[in-house]
Amino acid sequence: MRIVAILNQKGGVGKTTTAVNLGAALALAGRRVLLVDCDPQANLTDHLGLDESVGELTVYDVLTEGVPIEGAVLPTSTPGLSVLPADGDLAAVEQELATEIARETRLRRALARVPADTYDWVLIDCPPSLGLLSLNAMTAATGMIVTVQTEYFAMRGLSQIDDIVRMVQEHVNPRLQLLGILPTLVNPVTRLAREVMEEVRGHYGPLVFDTRIRQNIRLAEAPGHQSHIFDYDPLSAGAEDYRALAVELEARVAAA
Amino acid sequence: MRIVAILNQKGGVGKTTTAVNLGAALALAGRRVLLVDCDPQANLTDHLGLDESVGELTVYDVLTEGVPIEGAVLPTSTPGLSVLPADGDLAAVEQELATEIARETRLRRALARVPADTYDWVLIDCPPSLGLLSLNAMTAATGMIVTVQTEYFAMRGLSQIDDIVRMVQEHVNPRLQLLGILPTLVNPVTRLAREVMEEVRGHYGPLVFDTRIRQNIRLAEAPGHQSHIFDYDPLSAGAEDYRALAVELEARVAAA
Ligand SMILES: Nc1ncnc2c1ncn2[C@@H]1O[C@H](COP(=O)(O)OP(=O)(O)OP(=O)(O)O)[C@@H](O)[C@H]1O
Ligand SMILES: Nc1ncnc2c1ncn2[C@@H]1O[C@H](COP(=O)(O)OP(=O)(O)OP(=O)(O)O)[C@@H](O)[C@H]1O
Ligand SMILES: [Mg+2]
Ligand SMILES: [Mg+2]
After folding, report:
1. Is residue A78 predicted with pLDDT exceeding 80?
2. Residue A120 above 80 pLDDT?
3. Judging by beta carbons within 10 Å of its beta carbon (0-12, 13-18, 19+), is residue B109 exposed, middle or buried?
4. How far is the CA of B130 from the centre of ligand 4 (A)?
5. For ligand 2, is residue B40 a contact (CB within 6 Å)?
6. Nearest residue by C-alpha to atom 16 in ligand 1
7. In this predicted model, what pLDDT tens digit does every residue of B169-219 receive, in sequence order?
8. Are B73 and B84 within 8 A, CB to CB?
């Protein structure tokens, strides 16, 4: 079971879009995938039209009450693709766990109780902050993918991520591995995108995925239809890019 | 002194870009403007190239130690445009003030101690969350502008904002007024943008600004040059839109 946190504290850089569509690509390739929505804004849950079917139990109950993950997981219309949903309650997690013991290992312990061969991939969608929820994701994860919109601010946030990864590796999760940097919302023709790509590659070299997720309006339209890109427009550039990413990711972990 | 919080808990919807460029437009029109960076990621401070000149004192010290705002304010190269900067320390504010009294009125009290005719406008850049920092901004503010990227998720977040504005008005700040909804990152030719605009207008009617901030790569390039749009490319569509917004905003508050 590979557990991957999708991270960047900068807002709006394609974390949720990546979690949903990379997850769907892996599921359509025959893998069993669990998407964990770790954002109180619950965009992932909403993206797949599950906000209405969210019952009593969400990832909030898993983190605060130790409810087993299986009790809260929802299926999607795609075989092999399941969601551990979020809702607004999750906003309270930081305060509620502020004085608790082992606040950062709750997600890890919950995932550890899931039978080992239930899922091939667990993808965790993180909020735009480096708080307790992102920390739980990084503590639980075997690997992480950092999405970087090829513009100024998203690139600037990378050094802060380096620091926090090192801290997590030293103190709570030595097996956490940076699987790759994923360029997102790439407009291939602009000088800005090229300059940011050069700077990111200069710093991270081979860690940068060859796959770049190009700007493609279909990816922005899909959530309005409660769908991932493969249900909404399987011939789009967005579908092509996320399919390629799934292939590259599996090759990368197989080689590791 | 008009105090305006620039808000939306959704990430990457043009809050910082609006705070900087609306502020610059007002300053270039002769107003005295203070930009308050309320985001631990300090994008606003960075946008104007001030991250290096940030001294010992930032908005963090104002909020936690009661340091006077004047002690931390930095000038910019634009006359009439000043910045109360942030740095990474601000990330700790939520925990540090977790058990303190009057945690949400700290920014308001700090601004109340600034001599009444020091600034014409105070614009507060908020982080992508509805936590203690955004709450301080909404408690201190006389008005708020909600930036809405004309795509699915930013629009979905609006109902949550309605609730929290009502709560702030009822409990801590009856004078808080929604000044307007600002469509941002608008690609005028896409159906998605049109559909989101229709839905937002259907809900908010005349509250939606006539000015729309169009997608314009110059706005994304400007921070790489440590500049606002009027220094970077004053003839661009981005400059045109933010200039128009400043005019519309002043007309709106004059009429109120
Ligand atoms: N490659 C793309 N092409 C076009 N639009 C995209 C692409 N990727 C994401 N989007 C759109 O851009 C916006 C931001 O993306 P998304 O919500 O996935 O980012 P995020 O990092 O999860 O944001 P947050 O930090 O708020 O959680 C959304 O409206 C989404 O639909
Ligand atoms: N109208 C525009 N045209 C082109 N690019 C833009 C426009 N407005 C903002 N951008 C770019 O889009 C990205 C997101 O904008 P910005 O950082 O201002 O949003 P934000 O809401 O402050 O994000 P966060 O929630 O992370 O604080 C930035 O890279 C910015 O330079
Ligand atoms: Mg997201
Ligand atoms: Mg910002």
Report:
1. yes
2. yes
3. middle
4. 13
5. no
6. A14
7. 999 999 999 999 999 999 989 999 999 999 999 999 999 999 999 999 999
8. yes
Ligand 3 centroid to Cα of residue A43, in Å, is 6
**Which residue in chain A is spatially nearest to B39 when comparing CA positions?**
A129
Confidence label for B18 from pLDDT (cuts 50, 70 and 90) = very high
Query: Which ligand has the nearest atom to the CA of B10?
Result: 1
pLDDT band at B159 (very low <50, low <70, confident <90, very high): confident
DSSP state letter for A89: G
Which of the four pLDDT bands, split at 50, 70 and 90, describes residue B155? confident
Tokens of B101: 């009294």
Helix (H) or strand (E) holding A74: strand A74-75
Contacts of A128 (CB under 8 A, 6+ apart): A8, A9, A10, A11, A12, A15, B11, B12, B127, B128, B129
Token pair belonging to B111: 């601004």
Work out the minimum CA distance from A80 to partner chain B, whole angstroms.
25
DSSP-derived secondary structure for B173-240: -TT-EEEEEEEESB-TT-HHHHHHHHHHHHHHGGGB-S---B--HHHHHGGGGT--HHHH-TTSHHHH
| DSSP secondary structure, chain B, as one string | -EEEEEE-SSSSSSHHHHHHHHHHHHHHTT--EEEEE--TT-HHHHHTT-TTT--S--HHHHHHH---GGGT-EE-SSTTEEEE---GGGGGHHHHTTT-SSTTSHHHHHHHTS-TTS-SEEEEEPPSSSSHHHHHHHHH-SEEEEEEESSHHHHHTHHHHHHHHHHHHHHT-TT-EEEEEEEESB-TT-HHHHHHHHHHHHHHGGGB-S---B--HHHHHGGGGT--HHHH-TTSHHHHHHHHHHHHHHHHHHH-
Contacts of A187 in chain B (CB under 8 A): 217
In this prediction, residue B120 carries a pLDDT of 98
Tokens of B127: 């982080």
SS3 state at A4:
strand
Res. B99: pLDDT tops 80: no
Mean pLDDT of chain A: 95
Residue of B nearest to A45 (CA): B153
**Cβ B219 under 6 angstroms from ligand 2:** yes
- Which among B122, B241, B164 has a CA at the least distance from the CA of B9? B164
